[in-house]
Design goal:
heterodimer; A: about 180 residues; mainly alpha; B: about 100 residues; 4 helices
């Protein structure tokens, strides 16, 4: 599960912590993690051409598997079957579970001490979504979709029941059908 | 109750990969799914920034999100973006 490179010309063997850091950085920026890019570059040298990383890699588990096994990630991109890295999957899941439940517990116990609006938390979350959205906008089609979806939401917000504007905005994804 | 809701959620989530996991989506469906994430995120940004109780509310959140957007544009890390947005909104409310 530590990230290792299989090619003969290198001895890079970054550890498990480093793959976690890649994962976090990749999630945060949408950029391919540097070291993973290095690993993929080495793979390219030893097995041939590789497609670049993109926002579609954004599912955490998938990235964890890809980062842990660049060779399998490449196999998948070529339409062949990769392997699941059960250690990474279960380890990441356990970590997530502990942090999630712990965070909820912490909020229940000390949540009343803080006023979310006074510390601007209600602005932090839309900013988070905006940051997650940003890497997609390099694609012209995704940009158009996001603008239409935002427009639909803005128009429906004043009178539609809560939740409806977001569901309606998903119709903007039909832009994907255009050529 | 909790157990029922939990199990239904798990079955629901597992159904997709188990039933369809080994097949590729048709290209037309895949291209819709590709832009579904940006559509949802854009809708979330709008509802969270100016959403109210069946009304549009322009308040400190909008300023915070704009500040966050500038931070994103300057390639700030995710956590910094959130802190910038929160602090901007908090400061505006303070004065």
């Amino acid at each position: 599960m530590p990230v290792s490179c299989a090619c003969t010309s290198c001895s890079s063997q970054p550890g498990r912590l480093q793959s976690l850091l890649w994962l976090v950085r990749h999630r945060a920026t949408g950029q391919p993690p540097d070291d993973a890019a290095v690993a993929v570059e080495h793979e390219r040298r030893s097995v041939g051409n590789v497609e670049t990383w993109g926002p579609d890699d954004d599912v955490g588990e998938a990235v964890a598997v890809d980062v842990a096994h660049p060779r399998d990630a490449i196999a998948k991109r070529r339409g062949r079957q990769g392997r699941f890295e059960y250690g990474v999957l279960i380890g990441a899941g356990l970590l997530l579970y502990v942090v999630w439940v712990g965070g909820t517990l912490l909020g229940t116990v000390i949540g009343d001490l803080l006023d979310p609006e006074a510390i601007g938390l209600d602005a932090a979350f839309p900013a988070l979504f905006l940051a997650l959205l940003a890497p997609y906008l390099r694609s012209r089609r995704a940009l158009a979709t996001a603008l239409v979806a935002g427009g639909i939401t803005l128009v429906l917000l004043p009178f539609a029941p809560p939740g409806v504007p977001i569901v309606a905005a998903s119709l903007a994804a039909l832009i994907g059908l255009l050529r | 109750m909790i157990v029922v809701v939990g199990s239904v959620t798990m079955v629901f989530k597992a159904a997709g990969p188990v039933l369809l996991g080994n097949r590729e989506l048709p290209p037309r469906v895949a291209s819709v799914v590709d832009v579904l994430a940006p559509a949802m995120l854009a809708a979330l940004v709008v509802t969270q920034t100016v959403g109210g109780d069946r009304e549009l509310v322009i308040d400190a959140r909008l300023a915070g999100v704009i500040a966050g957007g500038i931070a994103i544009w300057l390639r700030a890390p995710l956590l910094v973006v959130m802190v910038v947005a929160a602090v901007t909104a908090a400061l505006i409310r303070l004065f």
